[in-house]
Structures are given as C-alpha cells and as structure tokens.
C-alpha cells in the first residue's frame, strides 16, 4: 500500500458554534476496511456526511485528500458543489441505515439504479436497465428482473438493503461509506448483508468506511478500527490489536459494556402470571372489491402459553414481526385477545373501569425513551400520575415524597439534578429518560413489569447500567419481568426463562442458559450464532 | 444554559421573542387593539369632561339632554352645535374633547366642502360620502374587525379542536363518519348561504359570526385530527393507558397539550383570514348591518367615489397594516414552534 486512498487531516465539522468533530485524522488505504466506532452523538455519521459535502448547515475545516488512481489528489473539503457532484456515486458512494427512507417510494428499484448509471456513466436507458438488473443479481436478490420492477415497500428489509447496496455499487466506486448498514435489520439478516459487503468489497477491491456502534460487526468485518468519543478519535489501530489490548480507557469501557449475567436465583413459587393459548388477530383489509365487505384477519400471536413466577424474568426473543410486542400488549390488557390470562387471581375485564385495580399491578416500560415521556409534563407530573390515579386520597406532600423516593430508587436524585421534579424530559439523556420511565412504572408498586425492548435505543455503556438497575430492582422488590427483546445478549444477562417466537408462534422455550447453550430449534440456533456465541460463552 | 424549569411553552416564547419583527408586531398590534378598545376616549363627538356652571358632567358616560346646557329641547345634546359650543365656552365653563372630536356616526354638517370632503384641519383624514369623519370610521372599523376576528377565531378553534380531537383520538368508524360529514359540509356553497340568510334574517354581527363559524372550523379540524392520530399511538399514551387513565384524562392531560402546535401556529393567520372575510362581505354589502363602521364598507365607498382618494388610501393602509402585523406574528410564531429549530 503506497499512499492511502483517503487521508483526513484535522477534519473539523461544526454546526453554528458547536463543534461536533474536533480535528480528527484518519486514512483508508486502497481496498481497506476501516471501522469508525462510537456511541450516538460521537460525530461518526457527521464525519462521513461531511466527506461528501452532505452535512447540511455544517461548516468544515481541515483536509480530506482523495487519491484516485488516474488523477491528482483532491481535497474533498475544498471542492465545489459541482466537483463533489461528479464524485458522489461514481467514486465515493454511501449506504444509509434505514433503507426504507433512503429509497424513493415513487420509483421502482431498477429505475433508481438505472438513473445512477445513466447520469454517471452515460448509458442509454435500455443499457442502464440491463446493468441495473446485473447489479441486483450481484447482491444475491432472487429474481432480479422481477425485483427491478418492484417498489421499496414491496421488498423485505433485507432485500431493500441489498437494493441500496446495488445502487451504491452500481458505478463501482473506489470508496464506500456505510453508515450503520445493518442496524435496522433483524439479527439473522445482519450476517448475510455483512457477508455480501465483504464479498463485493473484495471483488471490486473497494475501500469501505464502516460506521457503527456494534463491536461485533467491527470484529467480523473490519481491518482497522478508529474509536471516536465526543468528536475525537481516541484510539486507532488494527482490529485484533485494539480488541485484545485496548489502550484508551474509553475503548476498554466500550469493550467491557457487554451486559453481564447477574440475576438473582428465583425461589420456586407459584406463577403470578399464567397465560394459556393467547391468540391475537388483527383485522386487515383484503385486496380487491371483496375487501370492502369482509375484512380478512392476520394472526399476530398464535396460541402462546406462558407463566411467570414472582421475582422471575421471562425473556421473549424474536425478530421484528414475530408478534412479541403484540403479545406484550395483550398481556397488558391493551389489545383484545383470545385465550385465558390470569394475573394473580384476576383477569382483564371488558369494561375499562373494572380493570383499574389490575392496572396498578401490571406496568410497562417502552423501548424509545424519547416518545415514552410526554414532552409537556414535568418529571413530577409524569411519575406522580400513577399515584394520582390509584391513590387519589394521597396528600400532595406525601405524593411528592413518594415520587422522590422512587426516583432515588432508580438512581435519580435532587442532589444530582437540582429542581429534579420541575424539570422537563428534554433535559435528560436517553438513559436518564429510561430511568424516569421505570420510575413511572414502579411508583404504583406493580407486581409485573413488561419491558418492551427496554435498552434497544440506548448506547452500549448506558444499556449495561440500565440492565443492572433492572436486576437490582427485581431482587429488592421481587418483581416479575416480561422482557421483550430481539437481543440475545440481553436475554443472556437478564432472563431466567426464555421463549423464542417466530411468525407469531412459540418455537422454543426453557431455562434461559440451557436454551442458549443448547438450542434445539434451527431458528434459535441461528439467533444464538449471529449473536456471537464465543462472547456469550466467555461471559456465561 | 437555560433555567432548569423551562417548559416547552416557555422555550417557544423565548424563541418568539428573539424574532424582532414578530415580537414588535405583537407589541404594536396589542397596543392598537387596546387603543381601539378605548376608542370612546380617543375619538368621540361627546366631550370627555364638561364643567358647566360650577358642576362637572361626564358626557362620555352619561347622555345629557340639551336643557342641561341651556338648550330648548329634551333631546340628547349635540356638542357640535355652535350654540352649545358657545354656552360651553362662556364664563368659567369648559369642555375637554377627545383628540378626534368625532364619533363613528357623527356627521359634520359644517364641512366647508361637499361630501366626501378632503382632509382638513377639522377632519384629519377627510370625510366619507355621508360626511362622517374618516379617522373615526377607521378606528371604530378596526375595532369591529379585530373583535369579530377574535370571536370568529375563538369559535373556530374550539369547534376545530373538539371535532379534530374526536376524530383523531377515536379513529376508525367515528373518524370515517366525521370525515364524510366534513366533505359534505365543506362542499356547501358558503357565499350563497350567506346571501340567502342575509335576505331572510335581519343582518347583524352575531348572525354573521354564527354563519361564518359554521364553516370556519374544518381546516383546523384536519390538522388537529392528524396531530391526534400521531400522538395517540405514542408510547406515553400507551403508558398512560396501562396506568389506568380514562380516555378523557388521556386526551386532556397527554394528547391535547402535545397537539396544539398547529392550532397556535395558525392563530394569527386565522385572524387575518377572518378580518379579510369580514371586509370582503362588507364590501359586497352582505356583512354587518348598515351604519356599523366597517373597513369593507369604506372600501366600497372608495370604489364608488374614486376621486376621493383619501377614503381608499387610508382604508387600504389600515387594512394592509393590520394583515401585515398578523402575518409577521404568524411567521415568528411558526418559527418559534418549529421543532427543527435549535433552541438555546
């Protein structure tokens, strides 16, 4: 490797007076795979966008020299919009995290790829269409000719990401910027997409800048890794070296943030929640005129049975669309269902008023800490609401004390945040918001807590803290958890029992460690494998 | 760093204040409205205070018969009558007039020119074709317009929020039925209905308010509905439901406060639309009853006597100024409530 393909020198990006990327240096050789790792807000996506002049409203400083084989080195930061336009797509291409929003919904996949080829390589329409089909075929999409005529919404998530890759690679760029290319995909698809990227990267001897927060991905894919923290690169080196001997404290913290199993042993006790043959049907509109008169139905959960004892966690794991969140809503009494659910000695009644006592016993924590707290209510109003509903006679002073006590239990104190009760959610970080959401659920002293992907939206280090908080609360209060997740690592860290769901069916169940160690169903095996068993074995 | 307890509303207000144009427009508009609310003290044909033969009189508040001031009749005093003026100046008597000594209906019988008379020292902006003072007409017309617009906006917002909330929150069949109703209701020819009603009933401001309100809520209702549809499936609403709150509590405490952004953003624009609607109806002669001071009626006079440039010009300036102020406020408000704008 003589001179690197891309060489960034003191690259700085700022929005207004806020500097997001603070003078970073990195280089990517021809055909090299560099991973840029960091938590959200570390500036890694902005770095990639600024290389193509796509960071809107940003001002940049520094240099980013691109050395193409047959031409002089060009400084991407100094190029005009026109010159950048010539580079985008043809020499430097980008793939985005969410393929659904990155593809135009009004054009077919083939049209979008052909458009790139027509613009960049001057092909005629017919040639471009044929080339587009070839590109799609390369990415391993079945029936590429038919798929080229499909629209984004007609493809599955994995197919969409393949189409995105086909589009990015249509002109055989020298450098591919891949921004979290697998984050929006299900675990089983991640491996496939990664393999595809590797294969195409070798075939075209293309350099890849992989932006991710997922260390597993880095280990599997990249040659070198650069760790970013708050706009600075803190560590930089070959993947094997950085993973085995991390030098910087932050890298070590990232590597150690894999959740550890610390669950309390559950004393045998009669189950508090018992559900038998729970099915949930959605009404869907059938195609054509018939759909106007007779709605079809879609079976989201197919006869799931489960039970949870006090102080126990049942983990429900599955991919998106497997029905796990629907099952949770049904158990919360927020979704009509068929079958039997006994909570303690009660079950959900048809009338909302009859459920009030039971509502206190079953509470929920949602995935997205940003949409789960009303932005126009103070912390006191959010957490105190449950008390106002279930203990209307409680004095204001007592209510405030209970709220403060509960907030302290989840690790939020007035000493840390002056005027805590009067603050609004926007002043808290994702992890702190999730703690507020937990406090809101705990303040009414429930028996069962439904955790719907409680840590999926959080950074790895914060994820670990929230999980250990949940474990501590379970031990102190003998709570039952129904833990919904797609992440086998979270199951491994938290669950006593596990239930694997696929397409609305329960395909496997049993004690968590046993199922993870010796999965019997092929689907479970695939889930466990894609979650990197070696790490699991080490942690377990 | 802002104070720790700034609510989203307060932060929006802070952003609004940073927009100089919008903020000053708001101040100026509020001042004008307050002044016009006290129009009786600014522009009135009756004196504010009279001292006559050692006694104080308050003609602004009380209507005195002419006999009190030495006249011959029991009818209400005309303070522009030269005889009365004379009596009020004699001896130790005095009278304080409003800055513009004409009311909206006062006719200047002593103008030196035929009506409409051009601007003079007596009538600063001239008179209209019936000899009424134009400045007084404008002040009172502005007041009528603004009050009418406020009332119309209020009823429109109330109706729009209520119907939008019902459609958006309950969704499904309720939504479907309401949407079809709105489509039917919205396709009624509003103007014809107004013409028919103004032929059947005696025209009055309140009748006009009711009729315009009946058709003015639909646009807003769609926005509120969309906001409710979005917000009702947020996780905090689900959490509230899991907590056991009733539908009413959820709407009132959780969904409504988060759905009011379009309502607030549209307030100034709705007001300017209401002012414009009233003005156009008055221009066509379908609006407020004759004799009520109104900008639209003045515009129509201006059209009829095109030589009297002072009528059209001053009315035009008042109308455009009002609408501009409202638009500036609306722009600033929209920016202040834009979630994409950084706030610091």
Can you put this structure into words, describing what you see?
The complex is a heterodimer of chains A (540) and B (344). Chain A has 540 residues and is an alpha/beta fold. Chain A contains 22 helices and 19 strands. In chain A, the strands form 4 sheets. In chain A, strands 6-7-8-3-9-10 form a 6-stranded mixed beta sheet, sandwiched between helices. Chain A has a 6-stranded mixed beta sheet with strand order 15-16-17-13-18-19, sandwiched between helices. In chain A, strand 16 (448-452), helix 18 and strand 17 form a beta-alpha-beta unit. In chain A, helix 4 crosses helix 5 (125-138), helix 5 (125-138) packs across helix 7 and helix 15 (379-390) crosses helix 16 (396-409). In chain A, 44% of the residues are buried. Mean pLDDT of chain A is 85; it is low at 533-540. Chain B is elongated and about 85 Å long. With 344 residues, chain B is an all-alpha fold. Chain B contains 14 helices and 3 strands. In chain B, strands 2-1-3 form a 3-stranded antiparallel beta sheet, with helices on one face. The chains are: A alpha/beta (540), B mainly alpha (344). The A-B interface holds A 16, 329, 332-334, 352, 355-356, 359-360, 362-364, 366-368, 371-378, 385-386, 389-390, 417-419, 422-424, 426-427, 437, 440-441, 444 and B 4-9, 234-236, 238-247, 249, 253-254, 257-258, 342.
